TrEMBL record:
PROSITE patterns, sorted: PROKAR_LIPOPROTEIN (PS51257)
Positions of the UniProt region annotated as Disordered: 44-71
Biased composition (Polar residues): 48-58
Protein name per its UniProtKB record: Excalibur calcium-binding domain-containing protein
């Protein structure tokens, strides 16, 4: 009998001794699971024995024989596939990592940020061990000397005087007055409150109205008719806001 026939006879003989796979329809309990696991182990062992008989038995090649425990521990994927036990094959290789996690960071310069691959980490200038490993008292002194050489002393200069030809100043005007709103101080000719209301509606704010009033000859003259009561305050402008701001 040739080697192929001997291997086939051996597989048939071993398979005849294996118990049947438990019927799942009858219910798979703990005992059924153990029996199924034993059947898987025997199928793997049978596949290994068949593979060994095809490639050359230990007796024929003179190779040392392996014990039964070692025979079951070295079952390969090909052996399981030959026994009918399929294994999942990955459709694509696992992704490779270009840089291992926790790789050492490469220092660019003292005080500069550390770089790992393309990722910029936080500077380690506050880490005593890291700084002391690359700096010394002499290097610190040299760095301080370089920084001091770049200092530039700026001589103080006098504050420029404010130009006096900038036009009326509503703040200065408010602080120069003391009379309240509505108290007539200046004479008005034919005052018209309704006309004043229409004119005041055209200003963006009461401050702008007072500024235009002063620039047009106020408070003595009211060319736009926006101070009909003659108190020197156009529209609803209130000098008390500025007086209270300075504590007056």
């Amino acid at each position: 009998m040739n080697r192929t026939g001997l291997a086939a006879a051996l597989v048939l003989a071993l398979s005849a001794c294996d118990p049947e796979v438990p019927d799942s329809a009858a219910g798979a309990g703990i005992g059924a699971f153990d029996s199924y696991a034993t059947q898987q182990e025997r199928a793997a062992r049978n596949a290994q024995l068949a593979n060994s008989s095809l490639t050359g038995s230990p007796e024929a090649t003179g190779a040392p024989q392996a014990s039964s425990s070692s025979a079951t521990s070295v079952v390969s994927t090909a052996d399981l596939a030959a026994a009918g036990i399929g294994t999942a094959t990955p459709t694509q290789p696992p992704a490779t990592v270009s840089e291992p996690v926790g790789a050492p960071l490469a220092a660019t310069a003292a005080g500069a940020a550390y770089v790992a691959g393309n990722n910029v980490a936080i500077s380690d200038e506050q880490d005593f061990n890291a700084v002391s490993a690359r700096e010394s008292i002499q290097s610190d002194a040299e760095r301080l000397a370089r920084q001091r050489s770049q200092y530039a002393d700026v001589a103080p200069t006098a504050v420029p005087e404010r130009p006096r030809d900038t036009g009326p100043d509503i703040v200065a005007y408010a602080l120069s007055t003391t009379h309240p709103l509505g108290q007539p101080v200046y004479r008005r000719t034919l005052p018209n409150q309704a006309k004043a209301e229409r004119k005041c509606a055209g200003y963006g704010s009461d401050d702008l109205a007072q500024l235009d009033f002063l620039e047009s000859g106020g408070p003595e003259r009211d060319r736009h008719g926006i101070d009909p009561d003659g108190d020197g305050y156009a529209c609803r402008w209130d000098p008390g806001l500025y007086r209270r701001a300075v504590g007056g």
